[in-house]
Amino acid sequence: MSTAKTPPVIVLSQLYKRFGLGDAEHCAIDGIDLTIKKGEFIAIMGPSGCGKTTLLNILGLLDSDIEGSYELNGVPVATMSRRRQARIRSKQIGFVFQSFNLVSRLTVIENVALPLTYKGLRKVQRLERASDMLKTFHLNEREYYYPHQLSGGQTQRVAIARALVNEPSIILADEPTGNLDSRASHIIMEELSDLHKRGNTIIMVTHNPRLTTYASRVITMIDGTIESDTQKKRRTKKAARKRPLSGKKKLSKKATT
Ligand SMILES: Nc1ncnc2c1ncn2[C@@H]1O[C@H](COP(=O)(O)OP(=O)(O)OP(=O)(O)O)[C@@H](O)[C@H]1O
Ligand SMILES: [Mg+2]
To answer: How far is the CA of 191 from the centre of ligand 2 (A)?
Structure first.
């Protein structure tokens, strides 16, 4: 997918993000140049505090208080109104947050259906789509639970179902398998991998080096800068069979709930 002709989705030039003022000023992103093409699957690694989440927030238009330039699909983000940014966020970007961010007073299915509110679909259609998405993650029996009734792994899978229900073309995932056992991680990584194969762009933060086998490119950050940036060969089905992320047992609904 990432040939020389593939258009860039994201172009960052001399990007800086500062927090605090005066003596307390801290540069969380310290001069990053980065081009991401449509269809890339990028894994971002690096020690805690190096700026991974800060970078994802900027890429996902959740933080536009930046210095330098960010062009999304050829348009400088600085020239976009807040309204336009919000529209792009809800239609094109799927966010899996490090801290879940489910709405506690809504049921699982309502949480997953939430991003569809802006699509002009009727409620019954929204719930149908949400229900289909939950099936993918073996969560259909939990549709009418509330977030506090779920385990950590289930909560994370609901958060991912919610991020993907809108069929976004850019998926930003902050440690999407951070809380999951290997079998549940496998379900999520296969789903992300499938989205990648369908031509979507995926940017995933992870602390787990094994998950980088799914990525087409691995970026390592340190102190707000890019330390290394490596293109990888695509993970073939054969490689996946040789080194599965799950244990020996076959995936079962029971095993993942
Ligand atoms: N809202 C904020 N106000 C002040 N400083 C912040 C804020 N958000 C992040 N930082 C600082 O910016 C730096 C980068 O934080 P960030 O959360 O991006 O790191 P990270 O690489 O995602 O770490 P982790 O692996 O622990 O999630 C850290 O030093 C952090 O303390
Ligand atoms: Mg983080």
So the answer is: 22
Tokens 């933080």 locate to: 63
Q: Which residues line ligand 1 (CB under 6 A)?
A: 19-20, 26, 28, 46, 48-54, 98
Say if residue 254's pLDDT is above 50. no
> What is the average pLDDT value for the chain, to the nearest integer?
87
SS3 28: strand
Amino acid at 246: S
Q: Distance (Å, rounded) from C-alpha 114 to C-alpha 23?
A: 42
pLDDT tens digit string along 193-214?
988 998 999 999 999 999 999 9
Burial class (CB in 10 A: 0-12, 13-18, 19+), 119: middle
Q: Which domains does the chain have, with CATH numbers?
A: 8-256 (3.40.50.300)
| Distance separating alpha carbons of residues 220 and 83, to the nearest angstrom | 33
Nearest-CA residue for atom 26 of ligand 1: 48
Q: Coil, strand or helix: which one is 161?
A: helix
Instruction: Read off the pTM.
Output: 0.86
pLDDT at 120 over 90: no
